[in-house]
């Protein structure tokens, strides 16, 4: 099945290809001549995801999906949240974002009075847009923010995110692709999307 993934982020593209598998042939906006930044000006993940997928659908006329992700840190009242990409400024620099996050959390201990203090979650919203409208799919992963970056793999905030599902022992950067995708926010949202779209195609086939 050929489908456009409205992203310019090669890490997201790689993860999406691994999660969705070879049955989905992912095209990118760049391949289709869209070279400008795709607008994302909404105040929510849902709004941004929808805006990106609708933009590319309008430009190409092809069924299209997008991914908008945020890291929500409890000790920071949910920041950086929707603004995760630009947390340290408009340059969207991952190392600067991680540095700022660790700076904001300096002095916040792992635990206080029996309560975990550095808890956080990634939320990912996938929006699928076709001529039948828009559908949203969500994924979430719980964890904590490490005291310092760990590991070489992944991207973005991966070096400082310790997923609870692996016992807070390794950061996302220290996991294999398979280990991350099996529990990640993106893995969950894209698996839900893939199941839904496979079901849609099966329905269309039986209607023929
Ligand atoms: P956006 O969805 O492209 O707006 O990404 C928001 C921010 O979260 C960017 O700084 C990304 O680098 C970061 N991000 C998105 N997905 C992940 C992930 O799976 N791991 C770590 N950081 C991520």
List the helices and strands and how they pair.
Layout: E1 2-5, H1 10-20, E2 25-27, H2 45-60, E3 64-73, E4 80-81, H3 94-104, E5 111-112, E6 115-116, E7 119-130, E8 133-145, E9 161-163, H4 177-183, H5 185-207
Parallel strand pairs: 1-2, 1-3
Antiparallel strand pairs: 3-4, 3-7, 5-6, 7-8, 8-9
Helix pairs in contact: 1-5, 4-5
The structure holds inosinic acid.
Inosinic acid binds at residues 9, 67-71, 84-85, 94, 97, 154-158, 172, 184, 186.
What is the CATH topology assignment? Maf protein
Order of helices and strands: EHEHEEHEEEEEHH
Q: Assign the structural class, choosing from mainly alpha, mainly beta, alpha/beta, alpha+beta, or little secondary structure.
A: alpha+beta
Number of strands: 9
Bound molecules: inosinic acid
What is the CA-atom radius of gyration, in angstroms?
Answer: 18 Å
Let me know the largest β-sheet. 7 strands, mixed
Shape: globular
CATH architecture: Alpha-Beta Complex
- Which stretches of 5+ consecutive residues score pLDDT under 50? none
* CATH class category name: Alpha Beta
What share of the residues does DSSP label as strand, in percent? 15-25%
| Approximate helicity band | 25-40%
Q: Count up the helices.
A: 5
Protein traits:
208 residues; Maf protein; seven-stranded mixed β-sheet; two-stranded antiparallel ribbon; 25% strand
Would you write up a description of this structure?
By secondary structure, the chain is α+β, with helices and mostly antiparallel strands. It has one domain (2-207): Maf protein (Alpha-Beta Complex). The chain is built from 5 helices and 9 strands. The strands form 2 sheets. Strands 1, 2, 3, 4, 7, 8 and 9 form a 7-stranded mixed beta sheet that branches. A two-stranded antiparallel sheet has the order 5-6. A hairpin with a 6-residue loop joins strand 3 (64-73) and strand 4 (80-81). The radius of gyration is 18 Å and the shape is globular. The mean pLDDT is 96. Bound molecules: inosinic acid (IMP). Residues 9, 67-71, 84-85, 94, 97, 154-158, 172, 184, 186 line the site of inosinic acid.
């Amino acid at each position: 099945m050929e489908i456009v993934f409205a992203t310019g982020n090669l890490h997201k593209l790689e993860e999406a290809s691994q999660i969705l598998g070879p049955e989905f042939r992912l095209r990118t906006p760049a391949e289709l001549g869209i070279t400008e930044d795709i607008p994302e000006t909404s105040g929510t993940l849902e709004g941004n995801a929808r805006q990106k997928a609708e933009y590319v659908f309008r430009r190409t006329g092809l069924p299209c999906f997008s991914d908008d992700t945020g890291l929500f840190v409890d000790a920071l009242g949910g920041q950086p949240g929707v603004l995760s990409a630009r947390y340290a400024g408009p340059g969207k620099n991952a190392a600067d974002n991680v540095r700022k996050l660790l700076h904001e959390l300096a002095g916040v201990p792992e635990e206080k009075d029996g309560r975990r203090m550095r808890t956080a979650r990634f939320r990912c919203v996938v929006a699928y847009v076709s001529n039948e409208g828009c559908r949203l799919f969500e994924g979430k992963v719980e964890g904590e923010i490490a005291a310092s970056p760990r590991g070489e793999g992944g991207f973005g905030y991966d070096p400082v995110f310790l997923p609870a599902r692996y016992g807070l022992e390794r950061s996302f950067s220290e996991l294999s692709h398979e280990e991350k995708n099996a529990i990640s926010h993106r893995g969950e949202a894209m698996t839900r999307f893939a199941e839904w779209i496979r079901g849609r195609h099966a329905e269309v086939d039986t209607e023929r």
